[in-house]
Task: structure prediction
Amino acid sequence: MNAYDLLVIGAGVNGAGIARDAAGRGLKVLVIDKGDPGSATSSASSKLIHGGLRYLGYYEFGLVRESLAERARLLRAAPHIAWPLDFVLPWRPGLRPRWMIRLGLMLYDLLGAAELKSSRKVDLRERPWGAGLAPRFAQGFVYSDGWVDDARLVILTLRAAGVHGATVLPHTAIVAALREGPLWRVSLQDTDTGQKEQIAARAIVNVAGPWAEDVARDVFKLEFDGGLRLVQGSHIVVPRVHDGDHALILQNPDERVVFILPFEREFSMIGTTEVTLDDMARAPAASEGEIDYLCRTAGEYLEKPIMPGDVRWSFAGVRPLFDDGSTQAKAVSRDYKLFVDGDLPGRAPVITVFGGKLTTHRKLAEKVVNRIIPWFPRKGGPWTDTAVLPGGDMPDHDFALYLAGLARSFEWLPAVHLRGLARRHGSLTPALLEGARSPKDMGAHFGAGLYERELAWFVEKEWARAADDVLWRRSKMGLHLDEKAREAVSDWMTRVA
Result:
């Protein structure tokens, strides 16, 4: 029977962060996920690292301040998958007055310690800020926040955990756990083959996202005063609706905001919705009503309307929010809550995590491991606040400068293909390309810069097993390939993975 210091249940962004932090402090860590790492909530976000401008309206100043500090850390830790992004907020008469917006943005700047460019008023009749907007929108504001490739953030965080000795087992579920004093005896099951395995762990963290409450009740027989509130957020992807590298943030009479984000060079991503779910009986998917809502909302601001037929891809994720009693989904806190069972001496602990958000995953992980570490008194202290993620060690955190040097070393690879590789792998790109002297050395080319060599990397180093893993999470090449090419990738994965 394999024995571990810490079992982490759930390989989403929070589970990956906990595994990384704990392994780096010297704990022997196992992290499991019943599916592909990051395949649920953590790859279906709006892909923003931000303080949450709208959270100021709910007076969550502490959460906003912490989020903005984490935004700065992630921009430095992973410049290949995270970068600053300007947001244009068109002013719409009849909604929030201009003075209120300006005051909120000034507070946002202050809480973020002006880490990025300060907010300002702009004339939307001038390019680039008014690009794509209907002519009736003449005034607006610009502020800066951050963007991250959420699915790759999960994978790279897990790779960092692996560097420190953590073991990652995807497609593995927990089916039973028995506490025997200072030790847990745990039964795991391979979700593909049904094969079972017994392991021992001195501590467990249940961070199974939307399934965390089910795991706590069914496996650990725990009860809570408050539980999870499941809120589905859906997004659509359409051909680019405006020029420029900036995003749009749109106010609406229902008091929600909708983002229009530049996505994969040729596309715009629009989201999100907030629909309360009763359970996770069905896989999340954007409903016709949500798609109509996003098209209609965007169309009220854009020069050219968007129709459901324009949608090239849609996806949905479920936010596992701690139920704070708010009557509306949009008002439920995005903060996290930890429940510890096992504080008594000689009693193996299990910590259940409710809530959280993408931006604050590193801080959440640090707090969780701080709660666990008293059971391991000779282990190290916090260390992740200045550490870079795999591929992120670039001079001055400058991706453009690094890419220019990379282009000189690999002149034989088309620039757009090299840029895509560098965005996904950063400073690990030379290792992926090692020994290649021409595109022929990259193996079969499936199109749009997706080569057989990178697929093999995804399988061998990033736990990929199926076509969706590589087309929609390890990369977004599913958007750029036609159906025939996607089928070819699926055939390759079936033979090799």
Summary: The chain has three domains: 2-41+152-227+334-375, 84-146+229-324, 397-496. The chain has a mean pLDDT of 94. DSSP finds 13 helices and 20 strands in the chain.
